[in-house]
Amino acid sequence: MSDDEILAKLTEIIRDQLDEDDIVLNMSTLASSVEGWDSLAHVRVMIGVEEAFGIRFQTSEITSLKNVGELVALVRTKL
In the CATH scheme, what is the code of domain 3-78? Predict the structure, then answer.
């Protein structure tokens, strides 16, 4: 799966979890720059990502993410 495909799927997941269809993500997007993406939403997003991709994250992996690009890379390594 390519980074673009992962990013597209992540965008769908995040739109669904935050209930906002207008969210546009790129590799440098920060969670803090997305309206509604707070700590509780972050947990929902990570669970949604795990379920959608059939992967599991360690807590340390989740807390060290700095942007969407790092999440894409992490998902790619888990696939």
Answer: 1.10.1200.10
